[in-house]
Write a structure and sequence with these properties.
With about 375 residues, this protein is an alpha+beta fold. It has twelve helices and twelve strands. About 40% of the residues are buried.
């Protein structure tokens, strides 16, 4: 009988207990996979938004710790436009608002005729014709969630608008959003003449080496503001960072519970097999072989739990994407490196959970073990 066959036989002695341990590990790993892919997805989603718009830099006030930056006078956009290397600068207004039955949707206000509209592809209808019209443009996911089509009325806060078109974007976050002409959103939110982001399109001749100087020039021209590139904007958002922190804390708690479960299972298995371990030591098994056997039991449990957890985490994310409330609100980023890291964590938990039981098993003497009742 080989060492591995002994390990497998030991795990099958108490199949229900082994299964519950695997489930405990799987829950912890599933939480890590699901929460990590969603958190990374938020970063990727916002990077996609600005890349799709052709935005090289995003300028926002850095004093605020609100989920969305504090608004500022639209006239400040002109200071950015004149900076060398800047081809165009557009002030936009972003907010999260309740729209009919949807409690929270992204709403963007963009100036008509600016470059931020260029990347949108109309699915049906038309773009808003001017700031004076009470018209809105819906992303494809937003239109589906709200059950609206071209020509339908739509209630935003206390005012009624008409859907003039439905668009699609390469950025998932924009597909779940509502677009208004900037002046309309300013009036709706009582922020006349205010914006909270400046989208900067850089000149084609600008290189990576030029970016630090351009950012410095923008921050000098607008004291108290910061220029971010597309990959940094999510990292500067306090709401996203708090969410990632909570995800990490939740995952750590789940992993600790899983590690304790492995330790308990393997330790109970050792206590139940004291006489058997004594026999193995009496017939010549070295103590390091006893340690290896017990650690392998622990690693097998955690490996199976890790594989089940990865599969469960990915399945949970797919289910969330199909739930109407979450469609357009979450984006996932499934990364092979992250999945391998999750599997490595599960194996590490198995090793950690098996250390104490292995030590207890190996320190027995054959005489004491054989006398154990």
């Amino acid at each position: 009988m080989t060492l591995f066959s002994i390990v497998w036989k030991n795990l099958l002695r108490r199949p229900l207990r082994s299964l519950l341990t695997i489930v405990g590990i799987a829950i912890g790993i599933a939480a890590v996979v699901a929460l990590t892919t969603i958190a990374w997805g938020f970063d990727r989603a916002w990077s996609q938004v600005y890349q799709a718009r052709g935005t090289g830099l995003i300028v926002a006030r850095i004093a605020s710790r609100d989920p969305l930056p504090t608004s500022f006078p639209q006239g400040l956009v002109a200071k950015v436009t004149g900076i060398r290397g800047v081809e165009a600068a557009v002030g936009v207004l972003s907010d999260v608002m309740s729209i009919e039955d949807a409690p929270a949707m992204l709403v963007f206000g963009w100036p008509i005729g600016t470059f931020v509209w260029d990347h949108l592809a109309l699915a049906r209808g038309r773009f808003p014709t001017g700031d004076a019209e009470r018209e809105v443009l819906l992303g494809a996911i937003a239109a589906e969630l709200l059950g609206k089509s071209v020509g339908d009325p739509i209630q935003i806060e206390t005012e009624e608008f008409v859907v003039c078109g439905v668009y699609s974007s390469s950025a998932t976050a924009e597909n779940g959003a509502v677009l208004l002409p900037l002046e309309r959103l300013q009036a709706l939110t009582a922020r006349d003449g205010m914006v909270n982001f400046i989208n900067v399109r850089l000149s084609p001749a600008v290189t990576e080496e030029d970016l630090p100087a351009i950012r410095e020039s923008i921050q000098t021209a607008l004291q108290g503001f910061k220029a971010f590139d597309a990959g940094e904007i999510a990292q500067a958002n306090i709401a996203i960072q708090v969410g990632k922190g909570m995800s990490l804390a939740t995952s750590l708690i789940a992993l600790v519970v899983g590690a304790v479960g492995v330790m308990n299972t393997v330790l109970m298995s050792v206590f139940e097999r004291v006489r058997e371990i004594g026999v193995l030591l009496a017939i010549g098994w070295r103590r390091r072989r006893i340690i290896l056997m017990i650690l392998l039991e622990s690693l097998c449990l955690s490996l199976l739990g890790g594989i089940a957890g990865i599969a469960s985490g990915l399945a949970a994310v797919q289910v969330l994407n199909m739930v109407p409330f979450f469609r357009g609100r979450i984006t996932t980023d499934v990364n092979l490196a992250a999945l391998l890291a999750a599997l490595a964590v599960s194996i590490g938990l198995g090793a950690l959970g098996g250390v104490y039981p292995a030590w207890r098993g190996a320190r027995m003497t054959p005489t004491d073990a054989l006398r154990h009742e």
